[in-house]
């Protein structure tokens, strides 16, 4: 197990190194840098001014040097300065992380707390009206884009209550906090919940047909004991995998949700930074996300062993 | 007797009503004006900016030497008012403009304002300073200024190469704040210091911009507001819903499209909304340096095929203006009168007749029903650009031109245009001052950096200079109209239409005036107050 851990950690580092090169190169392949964009916005270009600005920002250096400056800084925890705001990149990124983390955490919580129980119910009640209704709900969750759902929620709340759940950095009441985080989390988490529901249902159905479930029933175990103690515990592995993958995909959903609900999190900030080709922000932020995703995958793999005693990683 | 009592009661009532009106009209102090901002500006430096995303939120931090009256919608030479300059005078030969400066004005950090600050600001703009602006989009405005000289702490003079009365108009633009000498251009990008009614508090990118009342403002009793807070909301639907729900006192200026205006009026019927021209023209840039548009006949045919009214009807439900380079009257000061405009080929009301003429020109150039000309119509990937480009392509079909839409990301748009890697382009041109000198020199002068098509006509250059030196507006106008007509006939940058847009505010917001011939000059907000 220890050797496996070490090997996985080594692979993590190699993966992150590869990701850093891909991020860096992709950003340079995208046409135009911040200097082009600033001058495009001004509607003119003076070659001398442009050269000065490129020199000031270090964009005149060879790519290898630019990469080295960035990655060595990242490893030291020096994220450089945002080209746009001219503030330390870390100072720009850090306050936004908890906001997105709260949203993502709540969305995942929503996904698991809604998706898993409803998936179990749907499987247990297979072929009933309730099953069909839940399947329609899950299908709609997969079909509705989160930005559309978000706009629908906003429009409905304005039309019905004359209120707008817009981001409040310092919520004073429980209701304000709820409106700030829970509503957008539900909007973005609905899709994950639907996916979780479908995976739970199919996984449960497979497990419920196994011999040991029949044996448990024959021994007189209650429905609840069979469904939750025996079936769900064995059906949960693929669900955990899906939730782990969804954690990585969630950032995509959060970009639009943060835009629609005007939440100043890292997801929307990242898109704006890409728009400006603000390399220090984009590179460091994507690397941080990569670290989180790679770590999440690692944790999911470790959780397998916790949930399924049959799985023990050996060489 | 009864009628006497009735009269007395009516008189008392009318006095009461009159006093109520007076009270309601009396500005109240206090309150924070909450607005949304349509996007996150690159920085806070107005001198380096070229979009009103910068000068709307930060104009209140500063003062100009002179300013357009903030309560008259139409900017004109008659509405120029002194600000940091108490008065101005022209020398006998109209080549020296001298300003007497206001005394006792302090920067937000407590340092005194003097003539040195004025000289510093314009040396920076003219590129004569040790310090440099990262970008200097309006350097050309001061090409006729030889030097800035100071005489004591409170007098400053602009020495000109030749008379240029429009200099005052450019000094009155929201784009011409006076910067302090003691703060570097870099610091002005992140923490601007001004002399204006509001002090900068913070700018969080993609989040918010906050200004607070300057308690030491040199205009006693102003501003009325305790502050202004902009929440940056890039999603227009979210922003408008928030305004409707009462989260904001005002929309971002001219951010409301004509179709959206109906939605707002239905959901927030008490809101005050105005629709004004933005002095932004939608136009066609033509690459006349390579085939097929090096052929003047094809250029003219294209210009004659335009059905401008259709653009206006489809995109603005009829609420936009047709004109030449200069914004059309009545809001535009210098635009051609309708009868003159309609003498230009392609501007006549009979579109079918225009197109028949255009077809003849195309046939002369070798194209016809059996041989269509294939062109790419390049434009930016923004709805305001894309939508008219699609209509343009549809209209070009009528004269044997098959257009293909070429959508270009913003980062690529300008480099693509600069290297002439396009055939036709659908472009938007914003004019920050309604004055021919700004528009002609910036967009049509030989060698100007913003003259995207490299149009260069030495004869017209002479006319540019002639109108520029004319001090009599009545004499200058016909000269301007003649130049504008020639620019359209040369197909220098065919103008399709001049856009209009809406701004809304809650009924308790008082003292807001949306400028009708500029989107850049009306955001000092020192007189705005909240009646609640």
From TrEMBL, chain A:
One of its GO terms (cellular component) is plasma membrane. SUPFAM superfamilies: MetI-like. Gene3D superfamilies: MetI-like. It comes from Bradyrhizobium symbiodeficiens. It holds the Pfam family BPD_transp_1_N. It is a multi-pass membrane protein. GO terms for molecular function: dipeptide transmembrane transporter activity. This is ABC transporter permease. The chain crosses the membrane at residues 9-30, 103-124, 136-162, 174-194, 235-256, 285-307. The keyword Transport applies. Residues 97-304 form the ABC transmembrane type-1 domain. It comes from the Bacteria. InterPro entries: BPD_transp_1_N (IPR045621), MetI-like (IPR000515), MetI-like_sf (IPR035906). The keyword Cell membrane applies. Belongs to the binding-protein-dependent transport system permease family. It is found in: Cell membrane. Keywords: Cell membrane, Membrane, Transmembrane, Transmembrane helix, Transport. Signal peptide: none annotated.
């Amino acid at each position: 197990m220890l050797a496996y851990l070490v090997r996985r950690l080594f692979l993590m580092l190699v993966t992150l190194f590869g990701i850093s090169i891909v991020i860096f190169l992709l950003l340079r392949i995208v046409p135009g840098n911040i200097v082009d964009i600033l001058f495009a916005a001004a509607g003119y270009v003076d070659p001398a001014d442009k050269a000065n600005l490129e020199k000031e920002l270090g964009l005149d250096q060879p790519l290898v040097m630019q990469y080295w400056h960035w990655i060595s800084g990242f490893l030291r925890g020096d994220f450089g300065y945002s080209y746009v705001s001219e503030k330390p990149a870390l100072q720009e990124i850090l306050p936004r992380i908890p906001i997105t983390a709260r949203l993502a955490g709540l969305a995942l919580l929503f996904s698991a707390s809604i998706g898993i129980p409803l998936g179990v119910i749907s499987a247990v009640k297979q072929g009933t009206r309730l099953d069909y209704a839940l399947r329609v709900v899950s299908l709609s969750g997969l079909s509705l884009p989160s930005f559309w759902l978000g706009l629908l929620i906003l429009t409905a709340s304005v039309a019905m209550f004359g209120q707008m759940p817009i981001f409040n950095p310092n919520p004073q009441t429980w209701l304000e906090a709820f409106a700030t985080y829970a509503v957008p989390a539900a909007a973005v988490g609905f899709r994950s919940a639907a996916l979780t529901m479908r995976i739970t249902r199919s996984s449960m159905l497979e497990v419920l047909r196994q011999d040991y479930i029949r044996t448990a029933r024959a021994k007189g175990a209650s429905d609840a004991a069979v469904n939750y103690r025996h079936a769900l515990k064995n059906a949960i592995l693929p669900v955990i995998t899906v939730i782990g993958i969804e954690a990585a995909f969630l950032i995509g959903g959060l970009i639009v949700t943060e835009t629609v609900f005007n939440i100043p999190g890292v997801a929307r900030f990242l898109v704006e930074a890409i728009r400006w080709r603000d390399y220090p922000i984009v590179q460091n932020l994507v690397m941080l996300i990569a670290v989180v995703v790679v770590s999440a995958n690692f944790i999911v793999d470790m959780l397998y062993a916790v949930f399924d005693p049959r799985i023990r990683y050996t060489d | 007797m009864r009628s006497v009592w009735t009269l007395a009661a009516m008189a008392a009532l009318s006095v009461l009503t009159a006093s109520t009106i007076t009270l309601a009209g009396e500005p109240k102090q206090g309150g924070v004006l909450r607005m949304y901002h349509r996007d996150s500006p690159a920085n806070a430096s107005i001198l380096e900016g070229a979009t009103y995303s910068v000068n709307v939120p930060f104009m209140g931090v500063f003062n100009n030497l002179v300013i357009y009256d903030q309560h008259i919608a139409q900017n004109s030479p008659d509405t120029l008012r002194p600000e940091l300059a108490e008065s101005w005078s022209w020398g006998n030969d109209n080549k020296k403009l001298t300003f007497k400066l206001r005394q006792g004005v302090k920067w937000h950090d407590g340092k005194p304002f003097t003539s040195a600050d004025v000289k510093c600001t314009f040396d920076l703009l003219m590129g004569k300073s040790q310090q440099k602006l990262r970008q200097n989009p309006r350097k050309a405005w001061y090409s006729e200024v030889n030097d800035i000289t100071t005489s004591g702490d409170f007098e400053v003079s602009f020495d000109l190469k030749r008379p240029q009365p429009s200099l005052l108009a450019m000094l009155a633009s929201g784009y011409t704040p006076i910067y302090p000498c003691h703060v570097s251009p870099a610091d002005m990008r992140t923490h601007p210091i001004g002399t204006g009614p509001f002090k900068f508090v913070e700018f969080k990118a993609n989040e918010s911009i906050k200004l607070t009342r300057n308690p030491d403002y040199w205009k006693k009793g102003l501003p009325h507001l305790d502050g202004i807070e902009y929440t940056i909301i890039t999603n227009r639907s979210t922003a408008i819903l928030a305004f409707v729900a009462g989260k904001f006192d005002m929309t971002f200026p001219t951010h409301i499209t004509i179709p959206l205006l109906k939605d707002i009026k239905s959901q927030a019927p008490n809101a005050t909304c105005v629709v004004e021209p933005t002095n932004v023209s939608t136009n066609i840039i033509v690459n006349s340096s390579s085939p097929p548009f090096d052929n003047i006949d094809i250029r003219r045919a294209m210009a004659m095929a335009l059905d401008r009214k259709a653009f206006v009807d489809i995109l603005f439900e009829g609420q936009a203006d047709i004109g030449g380079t200069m914004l059309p009257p009545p809001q535009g000061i210098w635009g051609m009168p309708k009868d003159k405009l309609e003498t230009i080929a392609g501007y006549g009301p009979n579109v079918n007749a225009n197109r028949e003429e255009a077809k003849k020109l195309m046939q002369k150039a070798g194209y016809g029903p059996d041989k269509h000309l294939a062109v790419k119509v390049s434009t930016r990937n923004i709805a305001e650009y894309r939508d008219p480009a699609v209509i343009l392509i549809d209209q070009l079909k009528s004269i044997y031109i098959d257009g293909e839409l070429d959508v270009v990301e913003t980062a690529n748009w300008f480099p693509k245009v600069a290297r002439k890697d396009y055939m036709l382009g659908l472009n938007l041109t914003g004019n920050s001052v309604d004055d021919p000198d700004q528009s002609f020199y910036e967009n049509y002068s030989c060698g100007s950096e913003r003259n995207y098509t490299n149009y260069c006509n030495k004869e017209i250059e002479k006319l540019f200079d002639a109108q520029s030196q004319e001090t009599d507006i009545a004499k200058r106008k016909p000269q301007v109209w003649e130049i504008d007509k020639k620019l359209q006939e040369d197909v220098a940058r065919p103008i399709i239409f001049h856009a209009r847009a809406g701004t809304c505010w809650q009924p308790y917001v008082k003292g807001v005036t949306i400028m009708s011939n500029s989107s850049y000059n009306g955001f000092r907000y020192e007189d705005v107050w909240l009646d609640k």
